[in-house]
Amino acid sequence: MKPVIALVGRPNVGKSTLFNRLTQTRDAIVADFAGLTRDRHYGNGRLGRHEFIVIDTGGFEPDAGSGIFKEMAKQTRQAVAEADVVIFVVDAREGLSAQDHDIANELRRLGKPCLLVANKAEGMQDSAKLVDFYELGFGEVHGISAAHGQGIRGLVELALEPLHLPEDDEDEEEEANKPVKLAVAGRPNVGKSTLINTWLGEERLVAFDMPGTTRDAIVVPFERNGQRFELIDTAGLRRKGRVFEAIEKFSVVKTLQAIETANVVLLLLDATQGVTDQDAHIAGYILESGRAVVIAINKWDAVDSYQREQVQRQIEMRLPFLKFAALHFISAAKRQGLGPLWQSIVQAHKSATRKMSTPVLTRLLHEAVQFQAPKKSGMFRPKMRYAHQGGMNPPVIVIHGNSLEHVTDAYKRFLEARFRKEFDLVGTPLRIELKTSHNPFADKDA
Predict the structure, then answer these.
(1) Which of 32, 152, 206, 401 is the most buried (most CB within 10 A)?
(2) Pick the CATH number of 4-172 from 3.90.550.10, 3.30.450.40, 3.40.50.300, 3.30.450.20
(3) Does Zinc-finger appear among the keywords (predicted)?
């Protein structure tokens, strides 16, 4: 089991910057705004041959009475409970605060091994402000600079030292079996976090009745029927005109990156709001990215028969380009329709990674041409010779021949339908590339 390190501290002390430094990624949103991270955020780090998991948490306010700050405090306590070691991050520039004392008392009550780290301490080794932090009662104060990378390696060594990690690597075979990355995408407040919490059986993500509660893309490991997944809860995409805060701009980028890196995207729509232009924009981006996709209409229990007919009509009108995707009507809060939804997710991933042999593809191509030949363009009729697979996730079929630049989009759709039917490709885009052979005598004088 990989050891787990949780980063805890009040807002804007640099926890997310330290998270990015430890994981050598830019997975956590970093900006000069207090309270930017709200959920637990998981990442992988490595020191030599030893791997570990890092959890970035929202700003910890132990005495938060209600609302989003109470939810963030609950998330932080859960992160501490999961951790082997806690890194308590304070701000060396601002000095000791009353909130630091509150957090220190809460961490002592939770009883996990804890390292006190003063971030932003570049050039402050002899500062009196660092001495003040000894009041918190966690022993030595470790001065670091997450932004500049100072003191990071020594900090990780100190964090892992008491865990007595084994020297041998036992998980090489497991690494080869990579989990399926499943991104849950959609507009704000359609129920993405609620759905993932329902799958997990715990409140892993902040599910709060306020649009835009999730600002970052959160990755959570999950296993179902022996198959491993990584569930990615993405920040809700807003209409472009509404993206006016730096935080929201970061969130849109994280959502698009999550879609780009996923194997399968679950596009979650809200039955009570219908299918909007923004839903169509998100669907279009999923298609452009070539991701396998499943569509789920959430809150189906909250609408009457007339609204249901309207939603189904809107799907046909606004999302005709996703006809290949399975469509499900669910209620995340009431756990309705989730079994069939999983079947479609698994099927979409299998379709996206299906291997198609060259002889079968070429046979299907010749049968299609025999059934309906491509239209003649002037003096030229496209001649299709053979086909082979050019990629997976999404599947790409490359067709070779002569004068293929004259093949119409309608004929490509005809070929796509035949290939889909033969290989049972459901839930994944299928790309067809046409490559015309070059005539070696074309440029020579007659």
Answers:
(1) 206
(2) 3.40.50.300
(3) no
